[in-house]
Specification:
InterPro entries: Lsm7, Lsm7/SmG-like, LSM_dom_sf, Sm, Sm_dom_euk/arc. Residues 13-25 have a biased composition (Basic and acidic residues). Its main location: nucleus. One of its GO terms (biological process) is mRNA splicing, via spliceosome. Keywords: mRNA processing, mRNA splicing, Nucleus, Ribonucleoprotein, RNA-binding, Spliceosome. The chain is mainly beta. The chain has a domain at 44-129: SH3 type barrels (Roll). It is built from one helix and five strands, in the order E-E-E-H-E-E. A five-stranded antiparallel β-sheet has the order 4-3-2-1-5, with no helix packed on it. It starts with 50 loop residues before the first strand and ends in a 19-residue tail after the last strand.
Length: 148
């Protein structure tokens, strides 16, 4: 009974890592990188407390003030307005009147106030500052030629 605490292991191995091929297994041994901290691809500190536009997978677009972010690019935005563009979303006139939304001339843009928003980083497609950005006419649209 006194020998019970002296044995370690469990699989009947030799007790060294050579039985596993020195691949590590569990435990996550130190690799060459060691305890290196991952750096963010984007430096969002310069956009803190400034207005930004964020586009998501699926076509949604929001504009708001950046209040915080983390290493996974999850964002916290305040005073958010969501804009949905395109004819593929389902919206009725009663929803527009009830949610203070607006439609453009073609009826394919909806805008609504969301307030505070936490955006998941895996869904982000584009982050851009509002300052210094303006919408321009599409230079690639060809004018109708009636002379042909």
């Amino acid at each position: 009974m006194s020998e019970r605490g002296n044995f370690r292991g469990g699989r009947g191995g030799r007790g060294d890592k050579s039985s596993r091929g020195d691949r590590g297994g569990r435990g996550g041994g130190n690799t060459q990188g060691g305890d290196r901290k991952k750096e963010n691809i984007l430096d969002l500190t310069k956009y803190m407390d400034k207005d930004i536009t964020v586009k998501f997978n699926g076509g949604r677009e929001v504009a708001g003030t950046l209040k915080g972010y983390d290493q996974l690019m999850n964002l916290v935005l305040d005073n958010v307005k969501e804009t949905t563009r395109g004819a593929h979303f389902d919206i009725s006139l009663t929803q527009v009147l009830q949610t203070d939304s607006s439609l453009d001339e073609e009826g394919n843009t909806s805008t609504r106030n969301l307030g505070l928003l936490v955006a998941r980083g895996t869904l982000l497609v584009l982050i851009s500052p509002v300052d210094g950005s303006e919408e321009i006419a599409n230079p690639f649209v060809q004018a109708d030629d009636d002379d042909e």
